[in-house]
């Protein structure tokens, strides 16, 4: 059972990594003059929808809420991959991958942010306790 959960997590992490890399490569390609106007137009729609907090169907609606995210964004990305010239897309996919390797996760910065949040929550908790004691 444990290995099944680990394999599902690895698959999910890989898909997430692939989508991030692909969307970043598409964003980079969007700015290239070799990309046709209709692909740029679709890139604005797909990437804008992917990163927008507003959905066509709200996520709180069971099944349908996530269906638009699971269908529209991947289909738009697939269509963009076909519309953008291969050499342009390959160039930006390589660039997206190299930039991801060049900028590894900064665990120190993450630790500082976590510590600041913990301190802020402790301060807020102390203020609340003092407020209730009055």
TrEMBL record:
Signal peptide: none annotated. The keyword Membrane applies. Residues 39-75 form the DUF1232 domain. It is a multi-pass membrane protein. One of its GO terms (cellular component) is endomembrane system. Keywords: Membrane, Transmembrane, Transmembrane helix. This is Uncharacterized membrane protein YkvA (DUF1232 family). The lineage of its organism: Bacteria, Bacillati, Bacillota, Hydrogenispora. Its main location: membrane. The chain crosses the membrane at residues 37-57, 106-126. The keyword Membrane applies. It is found in: Endomembrane system.
């Amino acid at each position: 059972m444990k290995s099944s959960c680990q394999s599902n997590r690895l698959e999910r992490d890989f898909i997430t990594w692939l989508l991030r890399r692909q969307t970043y490569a598409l964003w980079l390609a969007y700015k290239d003059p070799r990309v046709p106007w209709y692909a740029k137009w679709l890139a604005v729609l797909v990437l804008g929808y992917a990163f927008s907090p507003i959905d066509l169907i709200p996520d709180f609606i069971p099944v349908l809420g996530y269906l638009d995210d699971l269908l529209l964004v991947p289909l738009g990305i697939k269509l963009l991959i076909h519309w953008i010239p291969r050499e342009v897309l390959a160039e930006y996919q390589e660039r997206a991958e190299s930039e991801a390797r060049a900028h590894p996760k900064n665990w120190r910065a993450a630790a500082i942010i976590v510590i600041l949040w913990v301190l802020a929550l402790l301060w807020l908790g102390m203020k609340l306790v003092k407020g209730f004691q009055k």
